Amino acid sequence: MVWLAVAADAVVVFHLLFILFAVLGGLLVWRWHGLVWLHVPAALWGVLVELMNWPCPLTPLEHSLRLAAGQAGYSGGFVEHYLLSIIYPAGLTPQIQIGLGVFVLLFNALIYGVLLWQRWQRP
User: Fold this and answer.
1) Which of 75, 25, 79 is nearest to 53 (CA)?
2) Chain-wide mean pLDDT for the chain?
């Protein structure tokens, strides 16, 4: 069924956008402060998924949609299948996952630290 394949592709796009938002959303918060209520939980989820090696629920959703559409699934997770081959061709290791989680945490802590510092500097 074509619509199931389209739905699986939509999950992939949403998954990628979510990852980008979790990593870089602090930069959007800089401009639109109200996004903090969406970004902080998204960033924390992204950090926890990486540090705790939890499976993201979007990956099994995409797998099941692909199988229901008659397409072949793939082994591993979203990051391994779609992103890691571009960023880290050698494959995902626990050390890389921890590094990714720490990067997201530190990058966003830096952004929020600057935002808070700027807020405190205003009269």
Assistant:
1) 79
2) 84
User: What are the tokens at 79?
Assistant: 């990051």
In a 10 Å sphere around its CB, with 0-12 CB exposed, 13-18 middle and 19+ buried, how is residue 26 labelled? Answer: buried
**At 81, is the secondary structure helix, strand, or coil?**
helix
Residues contacting residue 67 through CB under 8 Å, at least 6 positions apart: 73
Within 10 Å of residue 96's Cβ, how many Cβ atoms?
Answer: 16
Q: Is 62 helix (H, G, I), strand (E, B) or coil?
A: helix
CB contact at 8 A, 11 and 62: yes
- Sorting pLDDT into bands at 50, 70 and 90, what band is 70? confident
The answer to whether the Cα torsion of 34, 10, 84, 55 is positive or negative is positive
89, two tokens? 């061709």
Q: pTM of the predicted model, to two decimals?
A: 0.76
pLDDT tens column, 19-54: 899 999 999 998 999 999 999 999 999 999 888 988
CA 52 remoteness from chain centre: 14
What residues does each domain of the chain span?
2-121
